[in-house]
Each structure stands twice: as structure tokens, then as C-alpha cells.
Amino acid sequence: MTHILINGVCGHMGRVIADVIAGREDCTVLAGVDPVGAAYGDFPVYPSFDQVEEKADVIIDFSHPSALEGMLEYAKSHFTPVVIGSTGYTPEQKQEIQDAVKEIPVFFSFNMSLGVNLLVNLAKKAAQVLGDQFDIEIVEKHHNQKLDAPSGTALMIADAIQETMGGNMVYQYDRHAQRKKREHNEIGIHSVRGGTIVGEHQVIFAGRDEVITLTHEAHSKQVFAVGAVNAAVFLEKKTPGLYDMGAMLAETE
User: Fold this and answer.
1) Using CA atoms, how far apart are residues 192 and 150, in angstroms rounded to an integer?
2) What is the value of pTM for the model shown?
3) Which whole number is the average pLDDT over 171-197?
4) Is 109 annotated in some ligand binding site?
5) Exposure b/e, 5-20, CB count within 10 A at least 16 = b
6) Is residue 72 within 8 Å of residue 94, measured between CB atoms?
């Protein structure tokens, strides 16, 4: 039985994660941390990590980038693995995560969906076959409350294509300020914000007289919650290091 502490437990994703865990037999919610929330289940909710009394097996984080430092300090001092599902980190915060993996296991992914990670792999394969002859554009769509743009998932897809293409691509976020033809080595990344869109990502390969589009649509946040809980169970017994969805899927093959 994996005992899980949820950071950001009173937010929408935190509640979905708690609900997913309640329906499983291999894990349970031990406690939650949320500075503006109150207890709503059969587990305690603390305003900060320094007040947590229980010893969890794994932390699942879907909170806010501002909570990263305190969470990592707690995790390192208690040798607790962490599943990080939040986005919008600064380069300095990403370095904090890289430093933490020397001491604890960290599962870090910009998207916990199995389908999205398959999309990434398909995009890499398409780039291998088409990249030199096709223009590549990424379009991501999310709800009107999302703070970061482009999404972490869009950047994850772009980085995977960039790696496949040998690191020679340039990310182009904003073309309205430039009046010139598209450069061949660009990856265009575009953000749409509106309504209650959970998450949609398109990878467009546009060639001469033909277009190939890879698309993933998330219809509820539960797909991310299921992935995060699976990651927590996977991470419990791991040694310090950085893990992602690819590592988890490879172990289950």
C-alpha cells in the first residue's frame, strides 16, 4: 500500500487525484498540504509542509511553482519521492529539481497523460521521416484560467522534436511583430486560451501539397490524475534520480 501526500490537495486537480486514489486498492491518501484549503475527506490537510505529522511514501504535487522550494526541502529532509505535475517553472526552479534528484527520486513530466506521451513519440518519429522537408507547427489550447503560455506540454513536444532534429531548430512564438517569410528551421508554437478546454495539442507537419496533423484531446483532468497516481506507485521504491513517463512505460513493457 502506497501512502500518498497530495500538495495542492484542495485545488481542482488535487481533488481529482484524491478521488482517483479513493477508487484504488494499492494506494491511499495519507494527508494533504494546501495553504488556503480545509479538510474535506478522511485525511488531514495542513497549511504548510512544516506542520505535516505523517510520514508519506510519496508526494504528488499539483500546486503552484511558488510551492516548489518548501516541498523539495521537506522531501529531501524526509527522503520522500516526489511526483511533480505542476508547470510554469522558471529556469532556476528547473535547476532546483535537477539538484534534488541527486538526493531523492523525482518523477517530472509536463503531462501525465499516456496519450500525450504517445503523441510525443509519434511526433519524434514523424520528425525523423519528414523533418527536413516539412514545416513544423505546434498548436495548444487550454481553458481561460491557465496562467502559463505556451503550455509545458507544448514545450515538451517541441523539445522532443528539437532533440530528434539535432538541436538545430528555433522556437518561434510570435510572428505578428515580424514581416518576413517563415524560416525552414522554425518550430512555430501557438497558444489558445478560452472557455473550459481541458487540453488539446496539435503537431502539424506541413509539406508541399500535403499536411499531416497529430492531435491529442483531453476531455477531463482525470487522465492526468490517473497518470500521476500510477507514477506515485511506480516511484515509491526507486533510488534517487529523475524519472518520467518513458521510464515508467519501459518498466511495464
Assistant:
1) 9
2) 0.78
3) 91
4) yes
5) bbbbbbbebbbbbbeb
6) no
